[in-house]
Design brief:
extended, alpha/beta, 22 helices, four-stranded antiparallel beta sheet, single chain, 19 strands
Length: about 625
């Protein structure tokens, strides 16, 4: 409007000035026509404007009455667009109206008093649905709204599965996501890697589509998984998808244990380092031993990490690629894990090992994937639920199972897998921890392995080929050998980079070391250099304001070390020499050399006193054994 006024005002002033000084008969014909048209417009305005001034108060009164009766912001015919998916459209008017009919007493009072909800995030398109964030009035919490989820869904014209009220950053903030009608009924489609592609497990594995229609790359390294739900709803298929992704990483080692007679993972066998299936005690024992072996491997990896430059706190892609270190990703999947944890003989030990591994193993590239159809407090250790980072719940029966998989308090917060319908929502799950969102409603990718359809075997064949192309082999099922890392000779390396100079700045030495042996010295700091020198009795000195290392100190340390190597068995001064090889190896008896009175050769029978006296002094170490016939001595001893 401002731009229009700025342009139109000079033009109007110019036209008025020309009309004032010129007669229209003397004007150009086109200019005279302009003035004729302006006269016609002016005549129309002189009639319309008075009429509008009369009708405006009437229109204002009608609009005010309409707004007062509705009590919701905006006018629907203005804000609702004309679009193909108009039946899926959700706006603030609809949300406010739906919330007003939930039967929450403080919210009802708020509306009766003429209150209007404050939208911190206005209703907007978010993937395959609409998202809004509402600041609730005093006395109302997001949990109260979540508890009436089915009624809220009905008020919005949606199914419960399509309506997700959850708690925001605060208890009084409601995050509301409403799916477009029918969008969640379709599957996720084909797995993106079913025909081609490779995986880096440090970047994650394609797992499914979020409620917003985005592909979720589920994390593997640094997390552990607990997957559960009713039988036949997709938990084994989800575990299979994660393991297929891990199999397509040539550096990953896979172990699988199936605590039941199920062929779901039979095609994986060529790619697995350990695989056992069955319900007998030997399978439970093997799985328990595997957990113990993983703990042993975790300790070994901790020591290896501590020996690396910079002492990295966890396994990285760079370290995993160094074969000699043995820090490659190690993924262990246990299907029907409740059978293992409830085993009468091995269950308690397996649970303790699993908890220890979940708490500490994630830093060392060791991943535990657990799947169960019985997520109760008796079948799954409570510490497992508390410490797993990624929880996945397919359709479950009650709040106990829901919180057993997703974490305590999730049901009350509105994150509920109990709303998922058996068979109808097969393959759809509620997940926490797999993205930065509070939760995700995931339609999982399905890689078929059933009668007439097998997409798993070709993927495993491709995974084995990737390993061969990389010049690797499937890891042995035996415990990995601890390969001793080559020990760098720091003193020799420092002497080499001195390059014949008498004094070299410490920063120059660090730079030269990193250039010549980057794998060993790339992360070194002044503290590392000082520690390496002090091990040989050398300390950097100041010269011209800079810390330097003197060549004579390094040379002296090398000479001392070489001398020590040449004389490793040198005895301390005053103790040189060894005894002859035929020396006696036992000391004589204490009474030898003290002949008694009487006939030579006759043995003097000891008295009780002599025995006591001998006892008071004790036998010398290494003395010969006492005479078997000495009855008094035997009793006294």
């Amino acid at each position: 409007m401002v731009i229009t006024v700025r342009v139109a005002a000079p033009v109007a002033a110019l036209l008025w000035l020309v009309d004032s000084v010129m007669d229209r008969a003397d004007m150009w014909p086109w200019l005279a026509d302009v003035y004729t048209g302006l006269d016609a417009v002016w005549s129309a305005l002189t009639v319309a404007v008075p009429l509008m001034l009369v009708m405006l108060p009437v229109a204002w009164a009608v609009a005010a009455a309409f707004e007062g009766r509705d009590r919701t912001p905006g006018a629907g015919w203005l804000v609702r667009p004309n679009r193909d998916d108009a039946d899926s459209w959700i706006d603030e008017r609809m949300i406010s109206k739906a919330l007003a009919h939930l039967g929450i007493t403080p919210l009802d009072k708020f509306y009766r008093d003429g209150g209007e909800l404050m939208y911190t995030v206005a209703a907007r398109k978010d993937g395959d649905g609409t998202f809004a964030q509402v600041r609730l009035p005093m006395g109302v919490t997001a949990d109260m709204v979540a508890a009436r989820r089915s009624k809220l869904a009905a008020n919005l014209g949606r199914a419960s599965l399509e309506t997700w009220p959850t708690k925001g950053d605060e208890d009084g903030v409601l995050d509301l996501w409403i799916a477009d009608k029918g969008v969640l009924r379709g599957g996720a489609g084909a797995w993106p890697l079913v025909h081609e592609g490779q995986v880096d497990v440090f970047d994650g594995v394609p797992f499914g589509l979020s409620q917003r229609g985005l592909v979720i790359n589920a994390p593997l390294i640094g997390v552990n998984w607990l997957i559960g739900g009713r039988p036949g709803q997709g938990k084994s298929a989800a575990l299979r998808t994660l393991l297929l992704g891990a199999a397509l990483d040539p550096t990953a080692e896979l172990w699988v244990f199936v605590m039941g007679e199920s062929p779901d993972f039979e095609p994986f066998e060529p790619r697995l380092s350990r695989y056992r299936m069955g319900m007998d005690d030997s399978v439970a024992e093997a799985a328990t031993q595997a957990l113990a072996d993983l703990l042993t491997e975790m300790e070994r990896r901790g020591k290896v990490l501590g020996e690396q430059p910079g002492r990295p706190p966890k396994v990285s892609r760079k370290l995993a690629d160094k074969r000699g270190l043995g820090l490659h990703p190690l993924v262990c999947g246990i299907d029907e894990c409740h059978e293992l944890f409830q085993h009468p003989k091995f269950g308690k030990k397996a649970a303790e090992l699993a908890v220890r591994l979940i708490k500490r193993g994630r830093k060392y590239g060791i991943v535990l994937l657990l799947a169960t159809q019985s997520p109760t407090k008796d079948s799954i250790p409570r510490e497992v639920t508390r410490n797993v980072a990624c929880g996945v719940a397919f359709s479950v029966a009650d709040q106990v199972a829901n919180d057993g998989l997703l974490g305590s308090g999730k049901y009350a917060a509105g994150i509920r897998a109990t709303e998922l319908r058996i068979n109808t929502d097969r393959g759809t799950c509620v997940a926490v921890g797999i993205t930065d969102e509070t939760f995700e409603l995931v339609r999982g990718f399905y890689v078929p392995f059933e009668d007439g359809a097998d997409d798993v075997t070709p993927v495993i064949a491709r995974a084995v080929a990737l390993i061969e192309d990389a010049g690797r082999a499937v890891e042995s099922s035996a415990l990995p050998e601890i390969e001793a890392a080559p020990v760098a000779d720091h003193l020799t390396d420092i002497d080499a980079v001195m390059d014949g100079e008498r004094r070299v700045r410490t920063q120059v030495i660090l730079t030269r070391l990193a250039q010549q042996v980057p794998g060993e010295y790339e992360g070194w700091t002044f503290r590392d250099l000082t520690a390496a020198l002090s091990a040989h009795g050398i300390a950097p000195v100041k010269s011209d304001g800079n810390k330097v290392v003197r060549a004579e100190d390094v040379a002296a340390a090398l000479a001392n070390r070489e001398r020590d190597r040449r004389e490793p068995d040198r005895d301390p001064a005053g103790s040189q020499g060894v005894l002859p090889g035929k020396s006696l190896n036992q000391n004589p008896c204490v009474d030898q050399g003290q002949p008694g009175s009487g006939t030579p050769g006759a043995r003097r029978r000891p008295t009780l006193e002599s025995g006591r006296k001998r006892d008071s002094t004790g036998d010398a170490p290494g003395s010969l054994p006492h005479d078997q016939d000495d009855g008094h001595r035997g009793r006294d001893d």
